[in-house]
Amino acid sequence: MKLAQILFSQGFGTRRACEGLVAGGYVAIDGVLHDDPSEDLAPEGLVLNVEGRDWPVHLKALVALNKPAGYECSKKPKHHPSVYSLLPAPLLRRDVQAVGRLDEDTTGLLLFTDDGQLLHRWTSPRHHVPKVYDASCKHPVTPEQFARLLAGVVLLDEPEPVRALAAEPWDGAAGGLHGIRLTLAEGKYHQVKRMLAAVGNRVEALHRSRFGKLALPADLAPGAWCWLPGTHVVAD
Ligand code: URA
């Protein structure tokens, strides 16, 4: 693949802009300047350095964001900044999409990809990718509440009861709050908050720690993003 074409595939601008970046001497590989836009290179495993920044080539993008509170999962946010504002320009040019949504005040693992098939698989209601949420609740979560969450609770406007795949105590809740870790197969609107409300509790803070097989990387700071191994990683 031609070097300028590789840059184009990574979201570094128009074909012409990418040729300009290469010919202008802004692209290095392994510390060596590469200024021929039509140089043929194998893209797999290549780490470009573009204008001083390393960029590992991924023909399909899959990244994890540690979503902070106060960001909306929308390209046209209404009241808060968009989660997309936390991603770099090349990923935005590639039109990566969030894999599902988290509420504005929910924190934690949010995936983005430009792989349409993967996006479909992970967001389709038929695919039941398990998602793990750590909820900090206002009231102690009673054994009865655990049992009801596992057995299924009826939510307004939902035809069928929804149940957690797993529900266990979680000891990470902030002072004065009570933790529960829930694994859900669906991704219904406000699902965790509505399920806890339905059993008589109230979610004060919510964090997603896993999506399918993928866990939020422990060293990923709130607001930061990182590459994930590849879109061949199957989450379900
Ligand atoms: N359930 C919720 O209530 N909110 C989220 O953001 C995700 C799941």
Write the layout of secondary structure elements.
Layout lengths: L2 H8 L4 H9 L3 E3 L2 E2 L13 E4 L2 E4 L5 E6 L21 H5 L3 E2 L7 E8 L2 H8 L7 E7 L5 H9 L14 E4 L8 E7 L6 H8 L4 E9 L2 E2 L9 E3 L9
Parallel strand pairs: 7-11
Antiparallel strand pairs: 1-2, 1-3, 3-4, 5-7, 5-13, 6-7, 8-10, 8-11, 9-10, 11-12
The site of uracil has 9 residues, from α6.
Structure overview:
The protein is an alpha+beta fold and 236 residues long. The protein has three domains: 3-56, RNA-binding S4 domain (Structural Genomics Hypothetical 15.5 Kd Protein In mrcA-pckA Intergenic Region, Chain A); 62-125 and 214-227, Alpha-Beta Plaits; 131-211, Alpha-Beta Plaits (2-Layer Sandwich), CATH 3.30.70.1560. It contains six helices and 13 strands. The radius of gyration is 21 Å and the shape is elongated. 29% of the residues are buried. The mean pLDDT is 95. Uracil (URA) binds next to helix 6. Uracil binds next to helix 6.
